[in-house]
Specification:
Elements lengths: L1 H44 L1 E4 L2 E4 L3 H8 L1 H32 L6 H8 L1 H4 L2 H12 L7 H4 L31 H27 L3 H9 L4 H30 L2 H6 L11 H11 L3 H29 L4
Antiparallel strand pairs: 1-2
């Protein structure tokens, strides 16, 4: 009897600890690729590299970062870029999703074509758009730099001087290069957002739209008062997804403009790359990385909070 009870006890212990052993490999991987780099970044942001080794400097890296004019300028460029990128991508994706939802002929072929930008890497997409406007031999440079078409001296997108700001030092209107970067980034992100919104449109019950048409609602009223409210959780997810990708993406800036002309397209992600790998100021780069991580955390938390409220769970 005692042996039977002992076997049951051992079996129960094995049953209780089995889930832990099953998820242990995942926990170890997360510790290696997530937790350790995060803790090392925090430590690095409080250090400065000296000829004799690393020296603890506290929050001086953060102070130096905030005191540079390039940081405030990069924050302005990032805000302008994100607002233009998110709004333009969302508007175009919504319009294309409405067209594809009409079951037009060869819609499957159009969706396949729509996926082409999505499968191209950021750096390659930036090179493609750069070849369109690079001075002297770009595909569209002959048209853009023609004074007869764009007076008085034509337009060289990659070298044009930014216009005078309207609001103090805030970089608006953006430089032509930053506007072109927004267009290129929109082209790259358009497939994913379009398919996301198309899926949301197709989940709307047809009876609701049909009954609204019987009640006399036109197409714009159906879109405004029926489709958009029902698609709002999906739109929120799309907005925050675009914001996160725009905040952290560096490949497009690297290959298309390189942060130029001057610093007119230097967003925070490219500033992080420049500080860390061009100037080798790893402590200051780690401080900026933590600031960007905090912004990402706020955006993710906001997304989860809003979607939970929209679903009625909070």
């Amino acid at each position: 009897m005692r042996e039977k009870i002992s076997r049951i006890t051992r079996g129960g212990r094995t049953q209780n600890t089995l889930p832990f052993w099953l998820i242990l490999p995942t926990i170890l991987v997360l510790l290696v690729v997530q937790v350790y780099p995060a803790l090392y970044t925090v430590w690095l942001s409080l250090q400065e590299r000296e000829p004799t080794g690393w020296t603890f400097v506290g929050v001086k890296n953060y102070q130096r970062l905030f005191n540079t004019s390039l940081f405030s300028e990069s924050v302005g460029h990032t805000i302008v870029f994100l607002v233009g990128y998110v709004l333009l991508t969302l508007a175009l994706a919504f319009g294309i999703a409405l067209l594809l939802n009409r079951n037009v002929r060869l819609s499957g072929f159009y969706i396949t074509l729509l996926f082409i930008p999505w499968i191209i890497a950021d750096i390659l997409a930036g090179l493609i758009f750069r070849l369109m406007v690079v001075p002297d031999y770009g595909i569209f440079s002959g048209i853009l730099q023609n004074p007869a078409i764009i007076p008085p001296d034509g337009l060289s997108i990659l070298t044009a001087v930014p216009p005078r700001p309207w609001f103090g030092d805030f970089p608006f209107p953006p430089a032509p290069a930053l506007t072109f970067l927004i267009l290129a980034s929109t082209w790259r992100a358009l497939p994913f957002v379009t398919l996301l919104l198309l899926a949301a449109i197709q989940t709307i019950p047809g009876e609701i739209i049909e009954s609204s048409r019987i009640d006399g609602a036109n197409f714009s009223q159906i879109v405004r008062f029926i489709m958009v409210p029902l698609m709002l959780p999906t739109m929120v997810v799309a907005i925050f997804s675009l914001t996160l990708s725009g905040m952290n993406g560096v490949g497009m800036v690297f290959s298309l403009t390189g942060g130029g002309p001057g610093t007119s397209t230097q967003v925070l992600s490219y500033m992080l790359y420049s500080i860390g790998w061009d100037r080798l100021q790893f402590g200051r780069a780690a401080a900026l990385a933590l600031l960007i991580a905090i912004v990402n955390w706020v955006l993710i938390s906001g997304t989860l909070r809003i979607t939970r409220v929209e679903d009625g769970h909070a």
